[in-house]
Amino acid sequence: xxxxxxxxxxxxxxxxxxxxxxxxxxxxxxAIFLSKIVTFLLTKISEMSWKYRLYLKTIIPLxxxxxxxxxxxYILASVFVLSFxxxxxxxxxxxxxxxxxxxxxxxxxxxxxxxxMEKTYQVGDRVQMGDYYGEVKDIGLRATRLVTPDDSLVxxxxxxxxxxxxASGNSGSSEMMATxxxxxxxxxxxxxxxxxxREAVVTSRFVYISPTRPVVVLLNDYPFYKGLxxxxxxxxxxxxxxxxxxxxRRTWNEFYKRxxxxxxxxxxxxxxxxx
Length: 275
Fold this sequence. Notes:
With 275 residues, this protein is of the alpha+beta class.
């Protein structure tokens, strides 16, 4: 039975003519065009609806996978007129060929499907993928595009989810925890410094405070200096970096007025961000 199907598949492909090639080409172009339109519309709608922004963006990679899958199925089933058994057998043959010859590509595509189906991270999330960190702008079948803090667009291979840890800062939520570290002299007025830092955090126009999203200011004592760590949530994850800059700037402005100075000793970065 399998041999008959292989022969039938080969026969079908031997009958390829300009019409079938042209039809397949048109379907592929249409799928790409439709995918871009859907992505554009969902992105625009999501930006106009803050409440459902991240939810709408999670539909983008799912819609692209569905469009490309339907296009591939239509080409094989309607253009080349393969039966269901032949489609299954052909999928196995293609999978074996990819596994032997294009392993990295296969891993990227497989990882892309896993990311979309299991929602490892979503469009709009702030993620750390290996050495890459930024906001997820697009999840493709081969790579994930991230916008880094310095506004660079980076394509990170999807197979990083199989080989390295991936951390999401907000996990689909519009709010996100942002931390910042500030270091002061060892003999500085710690109570006053913590009070100033907390005041700068809670008065920031980017902060989001609720019973489940409190502001926390911690003190760390090091041999030659003291470290203050602030933990708070931003209302919109896209404001993470401007929030840190805003709080750091206003904190140090007040510190200098009150005679609180940075340490003179060399500082080792004990946290995610040095203030």
